Amino acid sequence: MAQHEKFYLNGTWQLKKADETLLCPVEIPGSVLSGLTEHGLLEDPFYRMNEYPTRGLLKNDFIFSREFELKKEEGRVYALCCDGIDTVADIFINGMLIKHVDNMHLRYRILCTNVLKNGTNNITVKIHSAIAYVNEHVPAAGKEIHYTACGAMEGNQYIRKAHSMFGWDWGPQLPDMGIWRDIFIDSYEKAELSDLHIRQEHIDGKVFLSAETKVMLPEKAQDGEIAEAEYLVLPQSAESNARILKESVGNNDSTLAENADNLEVKITLQTPDGKQISFSDGKCLVEDPKLWWPNGYGAQPLYTVRAELFLGGEFLDAKELRIGLRTLTVSQEKDAWGEEFAFCINGVKIFAKGADYIPEDCIYSKITPERIYELLDTAVACHFNCIRIWGGGYYPADVFYDYCDEHGLIVWQDFMYACNVYELTEKLRESIIEETKDNAGRLRHHASLGLWCGNNEMESAWDHWGGFNDHSDTLKQDYLTMFEKLIPEALKSEDDVTFYWPSSPSSGGNFKDPDSDDVGDRHYWDVWHGEKPFSDYENYYFRFCSEFGFQSFPCKKTIDTFTLPKDRNIFSEVMESHQKNGSANAKILHYIAENFLYPKDFESLIYISQVLQAIAIKSGVEHWRRNRGRCMGAIYWQLNDNWPVASWASIDYFGRWKALQYFSRHFYADVLGSLKVSADAVYTPYLQNETMQEVV
């Protein structure tokens, strides 16, 4: 057996009710809803009004279980690794409880050496209803919370689960549960290379790389069971590695403590053209670096860093990362208008073009690499150079960021907190720190990672939204502790390079004018929610508009998938159940009346709603691009849907482009010509160039 192996437990499991009644097989990664629908035990929850009985089903607990064969060897360490458990669950191996988990945004590594058997083993994951969990939560006295985000179920802030699974003003209330990412047993004998961290320093056209590794070692706990400890190992000489390890291990009973003199980490860099460069003393010089650029500005060359762990010349483990050589931060220089907010890559300030992203499906196990690629292919084809991952969903899989690395999409990464009030308990405090470190450690090496953001809209909400400031002052202090202390401190321990922004929108934190037009980023909704005309965009010169939008209905073929002919009226019960913003249909009709003749039939209404949406977003983007330098980003809400619904998306649930997506190919073009029309009908032409080439 190899020194380090993984035994995947994906595949067919059995799904049961909490009373052990067998329901059906379920493919893992999977969930209650994916299993029941696949086997015909549950009607499509997206069809007509099926959301509501399905929600009732999710008030129950469920059990996922399977048997697996394992050839267990003495002297090896075995750990169960769960990349995605949704959400509150008890995990058993061979009838023994090994872990209680309660955060779907966190990966778990659970030692299980002593409970595994040689031969047939059983694993059982009992998942508790998220609905029941939040309903049973009792807040501390004086910390009662009554605010609920639009379209969401009460109490969703009491659990570290994607908020939008409890509903949003574009999504259904279907808080599914299951094993939604890989689950496997990690096994090693002597040591495991657990982490590789690469830092870059750009000086005089050269790039200096430095490497830091961590090694996982088996240790004996006081009760005789196998434990593990993680130690920092700087890949220096064998002698210095030995000294560092001995100092960190101390008197612990580690299998490597006595053999530390023979420990060695070798690191190499493979260039995009296949050349190999060795690290020496943990450092590497790239003399002719091929720089990474966003889409439209240049190429996206990627380098591969490989670390190999040896003990006495024996190969134990390896870890690889793909990196892009670049500098990437957010410039906040003061200027004539206030303070800029601009992505600065390799010393070049760019205008960010893109959209806000939500999970592709509200049944998360149905989000496949293929669906991710299809969506991001569209973004690249329409000249996006940025994508904002919204804070009410999830942290996407590695393949999402790999694609962004390969195609030049800068990732604005929210932490998963949105439009909520949180009670900072000790349990939540610990979970916040773990979640931050885990996700930052996983994602920090990506060339595409441009910004970490604490939350979506919560600073602005505490500042002036109705329903926030009538909560206790201690809850407001909890907000400051979470997003201006706990998260940035935990983030810095894993990623001390990527820019951190406390909230979106914000002017920098501490409730200092979070909706300023002259500092930081801005969300703008007077066009749409305020029913202002499209021309109102031209009254504002935001430094960076990270959210603005306009609704439309999905494509007719998409509507056909969840309706009967009798339902095809926007005020039918079925159509209104697939419209989660209570006043949205009236707003669409208002804007139609302001801009067009009233449509003759249902299909015409669907069509013209999409035209309106496209014109609205085009108006805002072209205005802000005409004012490049003062404004440095226009990110519209939103790119995609998580079920078939009327929404702000430019691509509907089935991947069908709305008119907005077609328009984006033009208003996000690298070189854009546009006309500004004055009140007295004077036409002024503008040309905006978002490339590194001069336009003649």
List the SSEs and their pairings:
Blueprint: E1 4-8, E2 11-17, E3 22-28, E4 30-31, H1 32-38, H2 51-57, E5 62-70, E6 77-82, E7 85-86, E8 89-93, E9 96-101, E10 108-111, E11 119-127, H3 130-136, E12 166-168, E13 171-173, E14 178-179, E15 183-188, E16 192-203, E17 206-220, E18 226-233, H4 238-249, E19 263-270, E20 276-278, E21 283-286, E22 303-311, E23 314-323, E24 328-331, E25 334-335, E26 338-339, E27 342-345, E28 348-349, E29 352-357, H5 369-381, E30 386-389, H6 398-407, E31 410-414, H7 426-443, E32 449-453, H8 458-464, H9 473-494, E33 499-501, E34 522-523, E35 545-547, H10 556-562, H11 573-577, H12 584-595, H13 602-626, E36 633-636, H14 659-667, E37 671-677, E38 683-689
Parallel strand pairs: 29-30, 29-36, 30-31, 31-32, 32-33, 34-35
Antiparallel strand pairs: 1-15, 2-3, 2-5, 4-14, 5-11, 6-10, 6-15, 7-14, 8-9, 8-11, 12-13, 16-17, 17-18, 17-21, 19-20, 19-22, 22-23, 24-27, 25-26, 27-28, 37-38
Helix pairs in contact: 5-6, 7-9, 13-14
Structure in words:
- The model has no long low-confidence stretch (mean pLDDT 94).
- Strand 12 (166-168) and strand 13 form a beta hairpin.
- The protein is an alpha+beta fold.
- It starts with a strand and ends in a 7-residue tail after the last strand.
- Among the domains are: 4-185, Galactose-binding domain-like (Jelly Rolls); 191-323, Immunoglobulins (Immunoglobulin-like, Sandwich), CATH 2.60.40.
- It is globular and about 85 Å long.
- It contains 14 helices and 38 strands.
- The strands form 11 sheets. It has a 6-stranded antiparallel sheet with strand order 3-2-5-11-8-9. The chain has a 6-stranded parallel sheet with strand order 33-32-31-30-29-36. Strands 1-15-6-10 form a 4-stranded antiparallel sheet, with no helix packed on it.
